[in-house]
């Protein structure tokens, strides 16, 4: 069932939990995410976004929507890290339930103008919209050790939210994309101030290596959406690597892909359970 808008994220914010936003690059990863949602009974966001489109094209959007609509689980289909209003419009027309416009690379006024346009379009379709302010360093698609970027200013964040009408704010508080050799230091005081100033749920892009207690503190401080990419990539690739020797001997494509799908499902289920309770179950080493 399609999970429209951001109601589940709003609910998570009041419960100090978070909705997982899982990034899918192909059909098997998307299927694994849906399996995990069905097994746990917890709403999730299936994120078929700009980066995966470079690999799979807009066909991936159709696959994601079909999987979500045919599932008994509550699944939102989300466009992640888009910088194009045309791409946002195309996904909204297809039936996406939420979108993210990423103008964080632009000067503040230009970011506001772009994000405001995206918010209006999304709301016209009854969809939720996420914007970003600040600089989350690193690469969305590959793991690499990086330092944190420019952090989000709480007062500027309040101005940004007020001027754009977004439903969820992705902020920079020391978090980074991809894997880092040492856990990034999250500015929890800044995070809490951003939530207090803006009044909207916050999205955490980059939970790589965060200790359990830090992730729990982030949720308590207003994070209600956590993007997950690296852990699923690693789960999928490790399963493929393990299955390939036997598969190569038989020219077998289906078996390693099935192994990858099941590995993604197990990893996603663990993350969903960790984020949906007050206790964070295991160290989130390899998140987005």
What does this structure look like?
The protein is α/β, with parallel strands linked by helices. It has one domain: Aldolase class I (TIM Barrel, Alpha-Beta Barrel). Helix content is 50%, strand content 14%. The chain contains 11 helices and 8 strands. An 8-stranded parallel beta barrel has the order 1-2-3-4-5-6-7-8, surrounded by 11 helices. The longest helix is centred in the last third of the chain and has 23 residues. It is globular, with a radius of gyration of 18 Å.
Q: Can you tell me the overall shape?
A: globular
Q: What CATH architecture label applies?
A: Alpha-Beta Barrel
Kindly state the mean pLDDT as a whole number? 89
Q: Give me the CATH superfamily.
A: Aldolase class I
Major sheet strand order:
1-2-3-4-5-6-7-8
Q: How many beta strands in the DSSP annotation?
A: 8
Q: Radius of gyration in whole Å, from Cα?
A: 18 Å
What are the secondary-structure elements, in order, as H or E?
HEHEHHEHEHEHEHEHEHH
Helix content: 40-55%
What count of structural domains? 1
From the helix content, strand content and strand pairing, which structural class follows?
Answer: alpha/beta
Which percent band covers the strand fraction? 5-15%
Distance between the termini: 25 Å
CATH fold-level assignment: TIM Barrel
Instruction: List segments where confidence is low: pLDDT < 50 over at least 5 consecutive residues.
Output: 141-148, 278-288
Quaternary: single chain
**What summary fits the major beta sheet?**
8 strands, parallel, barrel
Number of helices: 11
- Quick one: CATH class? Alpha Beta
């Amino acid at each position: 069932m399609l999970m429209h808008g951001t109601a589940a994220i709003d609910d998570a914010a009041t419960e100090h939990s978070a909705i997982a936003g899982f990034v899918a690059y192909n059909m098997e990863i998307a299927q694994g995410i849906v399996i995990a949602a069905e097994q746990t009974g917890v709403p999730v966001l299936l994120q078929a976004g700009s980066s995966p489109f470079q690999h799979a094209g807009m066909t991936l959007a159709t696959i994601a929507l079909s999987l979500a609509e045919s599932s008994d689980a509550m699944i939102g289909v989300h466009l992640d890290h888009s910088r194009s209003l045309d791409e946002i419009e195309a996904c909204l027309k297809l039936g996406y339930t939420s979108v993210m416009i990423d103008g964080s690379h632009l000067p503040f006024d230009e970011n506001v103008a772009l994000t405001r346009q995206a918010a209006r379009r999304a709301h016209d379709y009854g969809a939720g919209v996420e914007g970003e302010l600040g600089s989350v360093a690193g690469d969305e698609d590959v793991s690499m050790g990086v330092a944190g970027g420019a952090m989000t200013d709480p007062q500027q964040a309040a101005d940004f939210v007020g001027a754009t009408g977004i439903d969820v704010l992705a902020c920079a508080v020391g978090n980074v994309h991809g894997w880092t050799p040492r856990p990034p230091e999250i500015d929890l005081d800044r995070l809490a101030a951003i939530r207090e100033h803006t009044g909207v749920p916050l999205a955490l892009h980059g939970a790589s290596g965060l200790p359990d207690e830090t992730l729990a503190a982030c949720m308590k401080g207003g994070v209600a959406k956590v993007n997950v990419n690296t852990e699923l990539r690693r789960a999928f690739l490790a399963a493929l690597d393990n299955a390939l020797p036997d598969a190569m001997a038989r020219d077998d494509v289906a078996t390693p892909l099935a192994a990858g799908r099941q590995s993604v499902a197990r990893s996603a289920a663990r993350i969903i359970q960790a984020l949906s309770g007050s206790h964070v179950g295991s160290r989130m080493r390899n998140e987005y």
